[in-house]
């Protein structure tokens, strides 16, 4: 008989409901049962501290770096392992290393590193290419000299190998007709970002397969009374999934609350994290520019936001403290919703039989992390 592990907690949130005095039973990498704590038998039991919660592990779709490592600088399996370790401290059990606009050579290196890492690191789900097909009018810190229009060979670079997610953030108005549909047929997930697309251009892209919106509100055409742009399209569509950076810097809390109340779609938390998260340095270089991490912000020397100094536990905590969300709702934004967007909602984002045993234990008053498990391993 295979050895079973039971993680017992005062509160288990399974992604939908709360269970009190419950335990999650794990066999190999998967959850086999969620049961009452008193009913656990024939298993090694790990009892969490009094008052602790156990919930699905956090999933982050936009991670530029961590542990003083920037993925653009080091698109290697070793760098990915460092980034994973840095974010796991904050409850993130799986993520997409994110490559911002760079050369074709760097894009190929990133894709190869991800494919290699996925054979040994259970926390890697794939890769996020944020660029290079972006609007010159909404660059943020992306280098304008590296922004370009797609060519036929880019389909081969971006297409995911079996079992790997490839998320591509692009500006629909900057790519030729048929390109988004071709990416969709190749198995990519498509998100709008760094874009001046109109409402109609956004809707056309959605008909071609675009379902995501990268850091909604930031680096995109603003919501207007006569031109709703991408924001209106995202908030009105039940099929749209949009990322929110809840750090108190990127988007005002009032706008975030309005978006969460108005949407019929699928909001989700992202960090847009940079190397200082889980690291020791308060500055780093980004493609030749000096970036300073000060007071919870990552900015260039002239004050332009450059990603975020945000971890997922803090994002969840901010949702409760700043936006007034119930803790359960905040947790789903960090787990169930991103799993749904990636098409992995049948194996990640919930604590239920058959799901991978990715879990986070934390103190509910401040979302301080006690322990994490990835595929059943702590």
Automatic annotation (TrEMBL):
<dbReference type="InterPro" id="IPR006680">
    <property type="entry name" value="Amidohydro-rel"/>
</dbReference>
<feature type="binding site">
    <location>
        <begin position="218"/>
        <end position="219"/>
    </location>
    <ligand>
        <name>substrate</name>
    </ligand>
</feature>
<feature type="binding site">
    <location>
        <position position="250"/>
    </location>
    <ligand>
        <name>substrate</name>
    </ligand>
</feature>
<feature type="binding site">
    <location>
        <position position="215"/>
    </location>
    <ligand>
        <name>Zn(2+)</name>
    </ligand>
</feature>
<feature type="domain" description="Amidohydrolase-related">
    <location>
        <begin position="54"/>
        <end position="376"/>
    </location>
</feature>
<keyword id="KW-0378">Hydrolase</keyword>
<protein>
    <submittedName>
        <fullName>N-acetylglucosamine-6-phosphate deacetylase</fullName>
    </submittedName>
</protein>
<feature type="active site" description="Proton donor/acceptor">
    <location>
        <position position="272"/>
    </location>
</feature>
<feature type="binding site">
    <location>
        <position position="141"/>
    </location>
    <ligand>
        <name>substrate</name>
    </ligand>
</feature>
<dbReference type="InterPro" id="IPR032466">
    <property type="entry name" value="Metal_Hydrolase"/>
</dbReference>
<feature type="binding site">
    <location>
        <position position="194"/>
    </location>
    <ligand>
        <name>Zn(2+)</name>
    </ligand>
</feature>
<comment type="similarity">
    <text>Belongs to the metallo-dependent hydrolases superfamily. NagA family.</text>
</comment>
<dbReference type="InterPro" id="IPR003764">
    <property type="entry name" value="GlcNAc_6-P_deAcase"/>
</dbReference>
<dbReference type="GO" id="GO:0008448">
    <property type="term" value="F:N-acetylglucosamine-6-phosphate deacetylase activity"/>
</dbReference>
<dbReference type="InterPro" id="IPR011059">
    <property type="entry name" value="Metal-dep_hydrolase_composite"/>
</dbReference>
<dbReference type="Pfam" id="PF01979">
    <property type="entry name" value="Amidohydro_1"/>
</dbReference>
<dbReference type="GO" id="GO:0046872">
    <property type="term" value="F:metal ion binding"/>
</dbReference>
<keyword id="KW-0479">Metal-binding</keyword>
<feature type="binding site">
    <location>
        <position position="226"/>
    </location>
    <ligand>
        <name>substrate</name>
    </ligand>
</feature>
<feature type="binding site">
    <location>
        <position position="130"/>
    </location>
    <ligand>
        <name>Zn(2+)</name>
    </ligand>
</feature>
<feature type="binding site">
    <location>
        <begin position="305"/>
        <end position="307"/>
    </location>
    <ligand>
        <name>substrate</name>
    </ligand>
</feature>
<keyword id="KW-0119">Carbohydrate metabolism</keyword>
<dbReference type="GO" id="GO:0006046">
    <property type="term" value="P:N-acetylglucosamine catabolic process"/>
</dbReference>
């Amino acid at each position: 008989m295979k050895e079973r592990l039971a993680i017992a907690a005062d509160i288990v949130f399974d992604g939908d409901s709360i269970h009190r005095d419950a335990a999650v039973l794990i066999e190999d990498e998967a959850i086999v049962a969620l049961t009452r704590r008193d009913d656990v038998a024939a298993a090694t039991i790990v009892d969490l501290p009094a008052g602790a919660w156990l919930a699905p592990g956090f999933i982050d779709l936009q991670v530029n770096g961590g542990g003083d490592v920037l993925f653009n600088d080091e698109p290697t399996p070793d760098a990915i392992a460092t980034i994973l370790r840095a974010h796991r401290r904050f409850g993130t059990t799986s993520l997409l290393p994110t490559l911002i606009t760079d050369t074709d050579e760097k894009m190929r290196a990133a894709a190869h590193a991800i494919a290699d890492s996925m054979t040994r690191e259970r926390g890697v789900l794939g890769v996020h290419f944020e660029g290079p097909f972006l609007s010159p009018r909404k660059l943020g810190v992306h280098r304008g000299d590296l922004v370009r229009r797609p060519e036929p060979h880019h389909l081969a670079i971006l297409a995911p190998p079996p079992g790997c997610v490839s998320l591509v953030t692009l500006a629909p108005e900057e790519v030729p007709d048929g390109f988004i549909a071709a990416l969709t047929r190749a198995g990519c997930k498509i998100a709008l970002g760094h874009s001046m697309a109109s409402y109609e251009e956004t809707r056309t892209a959605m008909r071609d397969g675009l379902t995501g919106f990268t850091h909604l509100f930031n680096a995109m055409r603003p919501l207007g009374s006569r031109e709703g742009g991408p924001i209106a399209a995202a908030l009105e569509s039940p099929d749209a999934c949009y990322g929110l950076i809840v750090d108190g810097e990127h988007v005002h809390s009032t706008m975030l609350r309005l978006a969460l109340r108005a949407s019929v779609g699928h909001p989700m938390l992202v960090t847009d994290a940079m190397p200082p998260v889980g690291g020791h340095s308060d500055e780093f270089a980004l493609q030749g520019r000096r970036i300073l991490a000060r007071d919870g912000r990552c900015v260039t020397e002239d004050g332009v936001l450059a990603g975020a100094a945000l971890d997922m536990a803090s994002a969840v905590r901010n949702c409760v403290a700043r936006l007034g969300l119930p803790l359960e709702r905040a947790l789903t934004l960090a787990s169930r919703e991103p799993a749904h967007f990636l098409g992995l909602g049948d194996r990640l984002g919930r604590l239920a039989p058959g799901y991978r045993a990715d879990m986070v234990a934390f103190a509910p008053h401040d979302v301080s992390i006690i322990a994490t498990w990835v595929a059943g391993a702590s």
